[in-house]
Amino acid sequence: MTSQTDVQNAAAPGAAAPQTTHTGHPHYGRITTTGQGDPALAAGLQKVLDGRWADARRMTREAMTPDMLNPIGVTMEEHRAHVLDQMRRLADSGMPGLGFRTEDGGTGDTGGALTSFEMLGHLDLSLMVKAGVQWGLFGGAIANLGDAETRGKYLPGVMSLDLMGCFAMTELGGGSDVQNLETTATFDTETGEFVVHSPTPSSEKWYIGNAARDGSMAAVFAQLITHAENGEELRHGVHCLLVPIRDEAGNDLPGVTTTDHGHKGGLLGVDNGKIMFDHVRVPREALLDRFGAVDADGQYSSPIDSVGARFFTMLGTLIRGRVSVGAAAGAAARTSLALAVRYSLIRRQFDHPATGKGIPLLEYREHQRRLMPRVARAYAYACAQNAIVAELHDFEKNPEAFDAERRREMESHAAGIKATVTGFANDTIIEARLACGGAGYMAENLLTEMRADCDVFSTFEGDNVVLTQLVAKELLGAYAAEFGDMDQRETVAFALTTAVDVVQEKARASTLWQKLIDTVTDRENTDLLDRANQLELLVDREEHLLETVARRLRKAQGEDGSAAFKVFNSAQDHMLQAGRAHMDSWVFARFAEAVDACEDPEAKEVLGTLCDLYVLDIVDRDKGWFLEHNRLTTERTKAATAARNRLCTKLAGKARTLVDAFAIPEFVFDVPMLTDGGVDAPLETTSGADERG
Ligand SMILES: Cc1cc2nc3c(=O)[nH]c(=O)nc-3n(C[C@H](O)[C@H](O)[C@H](O)COP(=O)(O)OP(=O)(O)OC[C@H]3O[C@@H](n4cnc5c(N)ncnc54)[C@H](O)[C@@H]3O)c2cc1C
């Protein structure tokens, strides 16, 4: 059995006897240093992270108060009441109006609204989600799918919270496959009403935010049905209708049955529930008819002929929720990293053999490897998130400037960044909690609640696997379109050139990767720190994956449904890999653009190092691919690991500054594990000196 002393000796051979003179908080042991940041450098870095909506961030930051933090240890009902109170505060502050068009009573600042929602992710994810359901999803459905009259009638109440509502899309029988949901909305020509109905137990709406308690109306997604003159049933696909569900006293309306989901794995401040409809009648005007209308005679019309195209166009207008979820998860991940980094600078374990003083956690190589690559990715994702927010903002301001291709790309990147960042956030929050040891497990230090709340971000607003597949499908669609336009002669010529190009590109990429790693390892030779080269390397991996998966899928062409599915299904892992590789390079490109635009030389240099670490981290995580595809030799992958380690140590010297630049309100760090200790020399001078010297 290994004793505590063995472990100490193993960690620090020849160590002096453990010092017992450190005093600290009885719960957290010997806390002796805080690690101070460099405010000027942090300000330079913050400017890059704050991005185009820096003003919205500043205003939200100033309005954020400690009582908006996730209340720890309260009952579910207390948390729900607390979140509703905070929502009222937000409504009074005018924040929701940012996201609605001026003609609907808002200020039309999509970017500002998304940025403000993102900031809530630093405080309480329940508040962010409830705000997102009310203003982003329920309000967003009315704003994007409703006509002027409907918008005028309902949106003021949505903004002020006089009308609280649900976004009722998911059913027990199907969450990801929304196109085949079962709820029906059948037009009754006799009365001029729609009959909304849940025909089977599996058609019950499940998991719906605001459904358990506060919602009095729901934007219900249902199969729209009309009848031809001869009585034939005509199905027009999924549409959205506004259906009142509760009276003023909070009771279910006739034909509506709501059920409270009660305790969930997290997000206890949000009242999720189920809704069942039993032939509930709503007037014809309840249909949000931007993409499909029914006239008084029961005639259906739509500007889009194909049911599938109509459905995806409609969903495309609702991507704001998806962008918000990714953004808030990114904010939560940054908070968790800031907590873990601060703790790692004050928490000491085992004594240094030379000084006899306790060693701060972040001095340990492994701790640096756990936290610093995630800090680098947090920077990259924040920049990429800013880019997608800007794209959506510009689109909503001027949709005509977006052709079909650019629009499809925006939708695909919104899906991809949601999957990427929520996956990252879940992984990072867990690592941050582990990096804080037992203290991380105490709810008072915020990480456990954050972990529980963030969990479902990988599932809702589109499951991450399904969304990544969507990214890959979009890439393959673009690839097929390029191929599809060619005649046979051109196809053969293209294939031959491609084959030559592939060989040349592969050789070039391999050389570039080798050089890149040499460069990062040997800092004398800096020419390969060129971002364009780094991007080329990431794109090479993406293109290789895409070309090879396309080749596999070509076999499915001309096959019937089940044979085609078999081919497609056997290549699914390959497709997902292509989707992830694309997001890696897309994120890198957005990060590199943000770094290029940075005017502060010192900040720019640090951001450059973060960029390098982002790239080397990809190599380290996907080593197998680089080896299997002859992009790197084993010697070089080992060198890449060594280079990554070196960058981790270099950046650990600035860790506090790097997380200070996240500009999270200071009250968030007023937690016992960070406040109940003494103060000693900051670590910043230790690891940092190593690199500067
Ligand atoms: C707390 C919470 C709040 C929610 N709020 C709302 C709300 O307000 N309104 C609303 O409409 N919905 C809401 N949802 C529903 C949410 O959007 C769905 O849960 C989500 O879309 C996933 O659907 P599902 O649960 O049916 O999972 P499924 O689609 O059944 O997925 C289950 C698993 O199968 C995998 N899978 C699915 N399809 C594929 C495939 N083609 N290939 C490979 N793997 C696949 C997924 O990766 C996942 O791991 C909420 C859910 C939760 C948990």
TrEMBL record:
Keywords: FAD, Flavoprotein, Oxidoreductase. Residues 316-476 form the Acyl-CoA oxidase C-alpha1 domain. Transmembrane segments: none annotated. This is Acyl-CoA dehydrogenase. InterPro entries: ACOX_C_alpha1 (IPR055060), Acyl-CoA_Oxase/DH_mid-dom (IPR006091), Acyl-CoA_Oxase/DH_mid-dom_sf (IPR046373), Acyl-CoA_oxidase (IPR012258), Acyl-CoA_oxidase_C (IPR002655), AcylCo_DH-like_C (IPR036250), AcylCoA_DH/ox_N (IPR013786), AcylCoA_DH/ox_N_sf (IPR037069). It comes from the Bacteria. Residues 1-37 are annotated as: Disordered. Residues 536-669 form the Acyl-CoA oxidase C-terminal domain. Its cofactor is FAD. Residues 10-23 have a biased composition (Low complexity). Residues 67-160 form the Acyl-CoA dehydrogenase/oxidase N-terminal domain. Residues 166-280 form the Acyl-CoA oxidase/dehydrogenase middle domain. Belongs to the acyl-CoA oxidase family.
